[in-house]
Amino acid sequence: MSRSAKSCLLMMTMTALLGLGPGSARAEPVKRVALVFDDGPRPADVEPLLAVLAREQVAVTFSLVGARVDENPGAARTILAAGHEIANHSQTHAHPHELADAALDREVSAAQEKIAAVTGRAPRWYWPPFIEVDDRVRAAVARAKLMIYTPRHLVVSLDYDRTVPAAEIFRRATTDVSDGSVILFHEWREETRQQLPAILAELRRQHCVFLTFSGLHTALEGPSRP
Ligand SMILES: [Zn+2]
């Protein structure tokens, strides 16, 4: 990303942190939202997606699977270099309830170690596969000394369901979006990428600004809390 794109992102982040819309102080309050793209990285999917996000000057969170980072380390580094955040989306994307405690620990810690080794930066957030969170998942994540990102409100685009058509992904991704929403997408869904400029345009019309998980957490909770 160019320096001017980065400074524009910084300005947008500052605007979002202050909770102000672009323009006058009388503008409608912005909705601070985070887009998350799950299940990567795969170069064939992530590279065109990063190109769209760069054109749109939007920073998002990629929740990456450790085993895929192992296969595509360069893609993980490219995501960070472009100004996006990486979250831990487990090592193999297994269902937690199918795993014994030790295996669940490894799902969390192996991905954490892999992403840190490849990118030089340990993720701050765990983003659970299948959005499955229970006491065992919470305990495993705490043992790995990271945190589950818990959205104030989750908008599910349903793009992981291949029977859901493009128009429905658009409708779901842009409906019932509020301040603090996380909007869930998948890196591998081509229809999501194709529609992303239209989705972002509609969300901007609804006064949304776009932050990473950490940016949204800071905007909503303030920098002092963990
Ligand atoms: Zn997933």
Which features would summarize this protein structure in a list?
226 residues, TIM Barrel, two-stranded parallel ribbon, 8 strands, binds zinc ion
Write structural notes for this entry.
This protein has helices at about 5-20, 45-55, 65-70, 75-80, 100-120, 135-145, 165-175, 190-205, 215-220; strands spanning about 30-40, 60-65, 85-90, 125, 145-150, 155, 180-185, 210. The strands form 2 sheets. Strands 1, 2, 3, 6, 7 and 8 form a 6-stranded parallel sheet that branches. It has a two-stranded parallel ribbon with strand order 4-5. The longest helix has 19 residues, at about 100-120. The protein is α/β, with parallel strands linked by helices. The model has no long low-confidence stretch (mean pLDDT about 90). It has one domain (about 30-220): Glycoside hydrolase/deacetylase (TIM Barrel, Alpha-Beta Barrel), CATH 3.20.20. Bound molecules: zinc ion. Zinc ion binds near residues 38, 89, 93 and 129.
Any low-confidence stretches, pLDDT <50, length ≥5?
A: none
The main β sheet shows up as:
6 strands, parallel
Given helix and strand content, the structural type is alpha/beta
CATH fourth-tier homologous superfamily: Glycoside hydrolase/deacetylase
CATH second-level architecture: Alpha-Beta Barrel
* Helix share bin: 40-55%
**Main CATH class:** Alpha Beta
Q: Report, as a whole number of angstroms, the end-to-end distance.
A: 29 Å
Question: Rough shape?
Answer: globular
List the domain count as a whole number. 1
